[in-house]
Amino acid sequence: MDDIKFNKILLFSNALVPLAFLAFDGFRGNLGANPIEFFLRTTGVLTLIFLLVTLAVTPLRKYFGWNSLIKFRRMLGLYAFFYGFLHLITYSIFDKSFDLSAIATDVWQRPFIAVGMLAFFLLIPLAVTSTNGMIKRLGGKNWSKLHKLTYPIAILGVIHFWMIVKSDLKYPFLFAVVLAFLLGYRIYTAYQKPKPIKAN
Amino acid sequence: MANEIKSSEITPESTYLSRRNFIRAGVFAGTTLATGLTYRFFNEPPPKEVVTAEIENIKKSLDAPIEEKLNTFEEITNYNNYYEFSTGKTSVARAAQDFVTRPWTVEVGGLVQKPKVFDIEDLLKFEQEERIYRFRCVEGWSMVIPWVGFPLKKILDAVQPLGSAKYVAFRTFYDGGSSKNPDVKLPSGRNGMQSAFSAGIDLPYVEGLRLDEANHPLTILATGLYGKQMPNQNGAPIRLIVPWKYGFKSIKSIVKITLTEDEPPTTWNIAARNEYGFYSNVNPTVAHPRWSQATERRIGELSSRDTLMFNGYADEVANLYNGMDLKKYF
What are the helix and strand counts (H, E) for chain A? Predict the structure, then answer.
């Protein structure tokens, strides 16, 4: 087994650790008095964490030259989708009893639900086009254009979190700062393109 | 060829592979442990239960009995809001462990004939009765809690409000953050309270009721729950309970009660005027701007249930609001 493969397994299993804890605590009735809310909040935060870690790959590669990180980006992105899916499905089943019209009303009347829902629906095409075959079919350029959607998704995700908090904005603020830094880095490097060499 | 490696110096492939597997197993175990510890750091298990003293001679009350299942002591004491200690509902119990609630006095004054400072020990000598009430948080969760306490009216009658008194203002003990605070009894931080900046709301916490709401027989000052003195995290040693209003109206750890002519400022209304009104009666037909109030999750149940008008106390309290537009006075 080469190192890349081993590291992939390492990442895959570590990303499942929070879910294992959730399942273990849930099974033993240790998720606190409101287990649904706890599960909802934890999967939501994990979605944001994986989105931000996915967005950290490019800056880390460029700044430190850690090019092999690119090999793990797809898995990180898919984990963001996975935890986002768990988050949405928990809300749909336990908060809304899977009543689609109640969900539609919520999306219509509650901006923070609409923002979260939009972010999740934008994640779907990215998850669907994450296979090697799809990358080939779309062509590298189109594929990377499409996957620029990650930026608005992450912004919507942080706004979604910000909007639901009552007064203590510590954590939403922390996510916003990290996201601003990661997106800021991209803007900064875009303006730092090498100047054309003068013909001598 | 002095540099030639002797064949005896070459690590056999099997040794090399087993050493590598050994390291990998270590890396695997180490990172998994680190991830698990990180998860636990952010999601601490609840602290050990602190059992408070029994309250004796509790009268079982016949007022507003309800047939719903009581929430457990564990649920009530490990899941609630108390922003002075923490903004996390499951973190309050631990943060409030060192809260010192003796000696304690409640100063009652303002527009009254006989202002008085009550010692908590005297208040505990008032006839205590059990009141089983629904408790509905503005966030959309609810519980059924067996409080112990006495009607607020008893204290108000004792100080004899003047005719000009129209409202009752309440204030919570607070010693966090500022040395200018009027309630400082102990070095800041000793009680585990945090700064107003960390809480994200103005502190000390203040609340208010209309005088007729305060005098209503359902309105109590609670000194305990489940027959025991009030646990720190639930607002020791004495707190307000107004069962037909959202939970944040039921101010905790009261040090001051003032009768006033004008509507007093209230903490969450100051924080967000369009989200939390002065009245804040439980009302499934008036949504919070950011979420619906039509349903609630009863702690201990997985599916949600319908929220009742005035939290199920409409028969007792609806007449207090005759002719008022409850969408305007939310």
Answer: 9, 0
Alpha-carbon distances, residue B85 vs B90, B95, B233, B309 (angstroms):
11, 6, 8, 31
Starting at the earlier edge strand, list the strands of the sheet with B167-172. Answer: B116-119, B105-110, B254-260, B167-172, B206-210
Backbone angles phi, psi at B137, to 5 degrees: -80, 145
Burial class (CB within 10 angstroms; exposed 0-12, middle 13-18, buried 19+) of B310: buried
Rg over CA atoms, chain A: 19
User: Distance between the two ends of chain B, CA-based, in angstroms?
Assistant: 93
Rounded Cα distance between A17 and A146, Å, is 30
Name chain B contacts of A166, Cβ cutoff 8 Å.
87, 139, 200
* Alpha-carbon span A25 to A22, nearest angstrom: 5
Cβ-Cβ contacts under 8 Å, A99 against chain B? none
- Domain-by-domain residue ranges, chain A? 34-189
In 3D space, the residue among B79, B158, B167, B96 whose CA is nearest the CA of residue B125 turns out to be B158
Please give the torsion angle defined by the CA atoms of residues B195, B201, B205 and B211, in that order, rounded to the nearest 10 degrees: 180
- CA angle, corner A14, sides to A11 and A15, nearest 5? 85
Beta-carbon-side half-sphere exposure of residue B292 (alpha carbons within 13 Å): 21
**pLDDT tens-digit series, residues B282-317:** 999 999 988 889 999 999 998 889 999 999 999 999
* Mean pLDDT value across residues B63-87: 88
The whole-angstrom distance between B281's CA and the closest CA on chain A is: 19
- For residue B61, name the pLDDT band (cuts at 50, 70, 90): low
The DSSP bridge pattern shows strands B167-172 and B116-119 to be unpaired
- Note the pLDDT tens digit of each residue in B8-41: 777 777 887 788 889 999 999 999 999 999 999 9
Please give the pLDDT value at position A197. Answer: 62
- Check if the beta carbon of residue B290 is closer than 8 Å to that of residue B243: no
What residues of B are in contact with residue A12 (Cβ under 8 Å)?
none
CA-angle at B209, arms to B270 and B86, nearest 5°: 50
**Domains along the sequence of chain B with CATH:** 68-321 (3.90.420.10)
Name B151's bridge partners. Answer: B220
Interface contact A85, partner B, CB < 8 A: no
Min Cα–Cα distance to chain A from B105, Å: 30
- Contact between B171 and B211 under an 8 Å Cβ cutoff? The reply is no
A128-132: list long-range contacts, CB under 8 Å, 24+ apart: A130/A74, A130/A77, A130/A78
ipTM of the complex: 0.87
pTM: 0.85
Q: What is the pLDDT of residues A122-132, one digit of tens each?
A: 999 999 999 99
